[in-house]
Design goal:
175 residues, alpha+beta, Arc Repressor Mutant, subunit A, 2 domains, three-stranded antiparallel β-sheet, two-stranded antiparallel ribbon, 9 helices, 7 strands, 55% helix
């Protein structure tokens, strides 16, 4: 009976929306809430995560980790969402392209991109409008005074960053 209660609490923690750009809970929050404090707490945490993942799979749900803010969260299985073809930018591929170049710029510069560098990478004059729109959507923050752009943790919830990095690494290895 204890595992059922723990899974209910875990489901609630992993599906909670803290604010507009953050979902789920950190390992520490989960362990504290479940009152797991012994020296094997990391092992117990992994067992809970694996057990929950196993039971979520038939429902088309997936347990994922956002490395940008260390949060575990629930999402739809990517195989399922690929079939549905959910696109957060609907009919605006320019926003997706600008976000991609912003992501590349930020990751190559310790998390901070420059508007001018994004403009040069994107090869478009009017990138600032796209960046402002992406900021309204919650994907990034713009510092207008020094031209800095920083990603928010929302990007980690809408993209599978581990898969993206793996594809980039494999592509670079091929070249």
């Amino acid at each position: 009976m204890k595992i059922t209660n723990e899974l209910s609490i875990l489901m609630q923690l992993l599906s909670k929306k803290t604010n507009a750009i953050q979902i789920g809970a950190t390992e520490e929050e989960i362990l504290d809430t479940l009152n797991i404090k012994d020296k094997n707490k990391s092992f117990e945490f992994q067992n809970l995560i694996n057990y929950l993942s196993y039971h979520l799979e038939p429902l088309g749900l997936q347990l994922r980790f956002n490395p940008l803010d260390d949060h575990w969260f629930l999402t739809f299985d990517y195989d399922t969402t690929d079939v549905i073809s959910a696109n957060p930018f609907k009919d605006q591929p320019r926003l997706g392209a600008t976000l991609f170049y912003t992501l590349a710029c930020c990751f190559s510069n310790s998390g901070v991109g420059k508007i001018d560098e994004i403009r040069n990478l994107r090869k478009k004059k009017f990138v600032i409008e796209d960046l402002k729109e992406l900021e309204k959507l919650g994907y990034l923050k713009i510092d207008k005074y020094n031209g800095d752009v920083r990603l928010t943790s929302l990007i980690g919830y809408t993209l599978d960053l581990n898969a993206l990095f793996m594809k980039i690494a494999l592509k670079l290895k091929e070249e």
